UniProtKB/TrEMBL annotation:
Domain Transketolase-like pyrimidine-binding: start-end pairs: 476-650
Cofactor(s) needed for function: thiamine diphosphate
Lineage, opening ranks: Bacteria, Pseudomonadati, Bacteroidota, Flavobacteriia, Flavobacteriales
Enzyme class: oxidoreductase
SMART domains for the chain: Transket_pyr
MF terms (GO), sorted A to Z: pyruvate dehydrogenase (acetyl-transferring) activity
PANTHER family named in the record: PYRUVATE DEHYDROGENASE E1 COMPONENT BETA SUBUNIT, PYRUVATE DEHYDROGENASE E1 COMPONENT SUBUNIT BETA
InterPro entries recorded: DH_E1, THDP-binding, Transketo_C/PFOR_II, Transketolase-like_Pyr-bd, Transketolase_C
Domain of life, per lineage: Bacteria
Protein's name according to its UniProt entry: Pyruvate dehydrogenase E1 component subunit beta
Gene3D superfamilies: 3.40.50.920, 3.40.50.970
Keyword terms, alphabetized: Oxidoreductase, Pyruvate, Thiamine pyrophosphate
Amino acid sequence: MQTTYIETQQISFQEFKNQILEDYKLGRISREMSYLGRREVLTGKAKFGIFGDGKELPQLAMAKVFRNGDFRSGYYRDQTFALAVNALTIKSFFAQLYADTSVEREPASAGRQMNGHFATRSLNEDGSWKNLMAQKNISSDISPTAGQMPRLLGLAQASKIYKSVQFEGSEKFSNNGNEIAFGTIGDASTAEGHFWETLNAACAIQVPMIVSIWDDGYGISVPTKNQRAKSDIAEMLSGFQRKEDENQGCEIIQVKAWDYPSLLDAYAKAEHFARTESIPVVVHVVEVTQPQGHSTSGSHERYKNEERLTWEAEFDGLIKFREWILDYAIEIEGKEEIIATVEELDSIEEEAKKVVKAGQKEAWEDYQKTITDLTKSIMLLVENMKGQNAEIETHISQFNKLVSKAKKDIFHLIRKTLLVTRGTHSNERNQLLQKYNEVFEIEKDHYSSHLYSESQWKATHVKEVKPIFSESSEDVDGRVVVRNNFDKIFEKYPETLVFGEDAGNIGDVNQGLEGMQEKYGEVRIADTGIREATILGQGIGLAMRGLRPIAEIQYLDYILYCLQGMSDDLATVHYRTKGGQKAPVIIRTRGHRLEGIWHSGSPMAGIINLSKGILVLVPRNLTKAAGFYNTMLQADEPAVIVECLNGYRLKEKQPDNLGEFTVPVGKIEVTKEGKDITLVTYGSTWRIVMEAANELEKLGISAEVIDVQSLIPFDLSHEIAESVKKTNRLAVIDEDVEGGTSAFILQQILEKQKAFRYLDSDPLTIAANDHRPAYASDGDYFSKPSADDMVEKIYALFNEINPQKYPAIF
């Protein structure tokens, strides 16, 4: 068990004095970073600024109880904390402000995130895990209001799980579960549902979590009284306060942002509750000031009256800290001891200004050198081409007049030069073109790499292992295949766990986890409350701490509750850290072709368009689904696996090699060969397409049926184009709305695979109506493509081609 701050504070007065002055110095450095950062934006050297001034003292106090192995999930105001735990330097702060694309200079995001978004690097360059217990960890910040909260739940829950789950290498992720997850949030953001859902779940399952609420009285310009039912969030949360001898609820601590000794005491208590008793704690930090307002986009003088502004100036945390230091005196062995004189504090403040300015200057020079070196590398090549077109001279002149040059200006000059010299084939132009291709590849890596894994564990690298069938292979319900495969998974991978609504005690609503909780325990096979956003958040946080979670969202429609977290957080983790963090969570869900508005939707277009960065796998049966689970547990990428809801009671032959066979991602399967038309589909609709294809065969139309299997990635070897090349006709059949997934599939086939070259007829899409499906079997029939719809529409295509051979039906 790690000791806590309370248990370790036996120090001499000199040590105490040194700590105070170090805190004051760091607070002043952080404040000067905010001041100078704002000036850099307003003078045009940076795009936008949002800073942590006013929150220095509570963040210094929080940092004192933050240990190696701990995690933070926050938003963009925590620069003092990041400095205090050595996750940020002055130079890296300004490098991020300038959007420097160097990972070495800006390790949090390599210039991909605006300033104030912090992260530590959890991964080595090859994508393998670092020893997270040897560092203080910050999970990559996101801007969406309260969006950081669901992930916080998973980061905290991981500690609870590691108390009973160990596996080879788990020592890199936990020391017997003694880590705390720290969350930070602005007071106004507690009006968001994600805050309440997360805190509710944390209080129910009792995880070691400390949530700091920075309360400055406003949500940008809107005062607290207009944000919630009560202005005081601690008062609102009073019903969450745990009772003695009850294993529910949380501790609530309220403290003033300018009261340094009280802040130390508050966070020491919070750590003790969380680390020793695994209790969630809310630290409500009140009377926070915001000296420069919300951001560089506006002025707080517009909405704060003179009285408020005067109060903020008086109760600025650093001013109050200075006063406390100067007022402090204690008698030790008959001698009065003080912490510092006015002159000593003045000296610290001057030194803070100097080191911040020096760090900013170095960061700016490093960033500018990148621009200068790029300019030098191309200017001579552009100059050499002046004689080939008069416009080039004009473009060079315009470029040289720019006061501040960015990469976009350099590339604009190159591309304009290449544009006006199109059609020429001089050596000078060829040299410029070669250079352009070279530097463009570099910038493509800077701005567009790592959306998906680039490691050896990338999903597409997982070797295909086909299911093995023998004479003894049984015909069983589809749910038995996936259940028995899960049994092998949980036996094989001790780091794997599953959780969701009804996932534990009853073995999920379709019995795909039947008996698993009894066999593997409630920690690994767990029920959750009805709270989809935080089920996803659990998955993200657990995966960031080395576990392999399967987050079950009971029905596909309910995934809409998760879409914000999937889109803004999970899908961007690897990208926004440029390969510095990953969260290989598997989202298990089920859907398609059920009857009724609320359980049969097909929001696939929303998923694939809003969640690029997450693999989207759509197996046509439960054997395929089981194979995808086996594949993804060998990979290091997040994925959504959509099981066919109407397939659990359909018979399938159970493979002999459960837990071993894999289904490759990004690979289609031809399930019926044909020569007249290619029919492309996926999921539950595949069965109906096969039925329609057999009917078409009777009408003299030989249809080739392709099961996509994987929407993201999509048909990496372009096998569909080869099919169209053979059949010369194409129909995409989908149960999503018109222009939904069918449009995506069509774009992939026609544009990316260039299959339009082989078409003798217009491509056809057969999709569902734009409304949700009506109830009952008739509702499905009239709302989504039926076999009759497919037969008639495909037949009509051939009627246009040869009306004599294929006379009109209607």
